[in-house]
Every structure is written in structure tokens, then in C-alpha cells.
Design goal:
This protein is α/β, with parallel strands linked by helices and 229 residues long. 33% of the residues lie in helices and 28% in strands. The chain has a single domain (4-225), classed as 3-Layer(aba) Sandwich (Rossmann fold), CATH 3.40.50. It has a 6-stranded mixed sheet, sandwiched between helices. Strands 2-1-4-5 form a 4-stranded antiparallel sheet, covered by helices on one side. It is globular and about 50 Å long. The model has no long low-confidence stretch (mean pLDDT 93).
Length: 229
């Protein structure tokens, strides 16, 4: 059974009397352990799809099954529970909390899930090590480079061992060398069995995915399979 299973998903925004369709009748399935990239021009529906996949928004119609649960009908509080427990987010702008050090930033999602502090500290230390930041754990985000901050964000996304990881332009703010390091970490996570969905406009990023979903005008224009996997 696919980990992400979407049927005829649509989203329409109301602006006054105007209805603006952002997504129309999207069908999509992503298997456990797959690496998918979402591409498309500005206004094609990438952000809307990402917000729906991440349970940050609800569809106007259609069905979204995540790990066997129908999340399309859930209320806000249920959705926030699903977000915290089942989805890891990586944003272009890192979204770290500047007052907290690295370990504390990685602990935040576990705090909301009620993980005891000792266990969450241990897990945060393991994740910091996994992304190569063991020597910086007492630093705050402002003392780190962009690439290092994004590594903290990846570790934080993994904190609750989510079903899927959603990354929105994860290398968008980075120079090419730091970007390559981040992509390497994402590749490694995928090799370890993590399901990744990356929104990107960068061909280099998309090339690493197994399937590339091209959106146009709120619908799926085509899905490419990358053969090298």
C-alpha cells in the first residue's frame, strides 16, 4: 500500500467572490521509501500540493491517505497531531529558533510529542552526529553557516521518525558546495529507507529523485521515472 495515496485532490481558494483553483483533480501515489521531486513553474500548484501533503491545509475535495489514515477529512487539532508525529519538514529558510542551541532545536518536535527529556536529548545527540554536527551542539543557529543550519533542520525533521519528509527548496538559500552536502544527506536518508518529497525548481535536485512530478496549471502534466535508481 502506498504511503501517500491521493485521489482527485483539489484546492480552491476564495478571494471575496472569486474562486481561484490552485489544484485540480490530482491523483498521485508515493511508495514507502521512494524519493519524489515536485517541479513546475511559479503558480503551478507546487506550494499548494506541499501544504496539503504536509497537512498544513485541507483539500476542497478529494482524498488523501497518509500511511493508511484518511487525513483529508481531519479537523485542525487532528491534523496538527499528524504533522507532529508523521511528517518531517525541511524549509528553504531553515526556520530554526535562534534562542535555542542545536540540541534544543532538534528536541522541539519531541517536546510536542511528550518524549521524556532524557530520551529526547539522547536522540537529538544521535541525530546531530548523523548530520555531522556533533562538535557544534552547544552553538546557536546564528553561529552556524547556512549549510550547517540546514543540517540542523534535517536532524529536527527526523526527530519523531516521521513517515514522510517534505523538503521545500532545501538548497534554495545555499551555495553550490553546501547545497551538494545537503543533497548528499538526503540521498543517504533515502538509502536508509526514508520517504522523501522535495519541491524544487533545480534540475540537479530533481535528477536525484526516483520520480519527478511535473505540475502545470494546478494539475499533473507528467511524471518522469529516473532510471538510475
Amino acid at each position: 500500500m502506498p504511503i501517500v495515496d491521493i485521489e482527485r485532490l483539489s484546492k480552491t481558494y476564495r478571494i471575496g467572490d472569486l474562486e481561484v483553483p490552485a489544484l485540480r483533480d490530482v491523483d498521485l501515489s508515493i511508495e514507502q521509501g521512494q524519493y519524489a521531486a515536485i517541479m513546475g513553474p511559479s503558480g503551478s500548484g507546487k506550494s499548494t500540493l506541499l501544504n496539503l501533503l504536509g497537512c498544513l491545509d485541507q483539500p476542497s475535495s478529494g482524498r488523501y491517505m497518509l500511511g493508511g489514515s484518511d487525513v483529508s477529512q481531519m479537523k485542525d487539532d487532528e491534523l496538527s497531531q499528524i504533522r507532529g508525529a508523521r511528517i518531517g519538514f525541511i524549509f528553504q529558510s531553515y526556520n530554526l529558533i535562534t534562542q535555542l542551541n542545536i540540541i534544543e532545536n532538534i528536541q522541539v518536535p519531541m517536546f510536542y510529542q511528550g518524549v521524556p527529556e532524557k530520551a529526547s536529548t539522547r536522540r537529538a545527540e544521535e541525530l546531530a552526529q548523523m548530520v555531522g554536527l556533533s562538535d557544534r551542539v552547544k552553538h546557536r543557529p546564528t553561529e552556524l553557516s547556512g549549510g550547517q543550519q540546514q543540517r540542523v533542520a534535517i536532524a529536527r525533521a527526523l526527530a519523531n521518525d516521521p513517515l514522510i519528509i517534505l523538503a521545500d527548496e532545501p538548497t534554495g538559500n545555499l551555495d553550490s558546495e553546501s547545497g551538494a552536502e545537503i543533497l548528499h544527506i538526503l540521498d543517504d536518508l533515502n538509502v536508509r529507507g526514508k520517504t522523501l518529497i522535495v519541491v524544487t525548481h533545480d534540475e540537479n535536485v530533481a535528477r536525484r529523485a526516483e520520480q519527478v512530478i511535473h505540475l502545470f496549471d494546478g494539475g499533473i502534466e507528467r511524471i518522469e521515472q529516473n532510471r538510475h535508481h
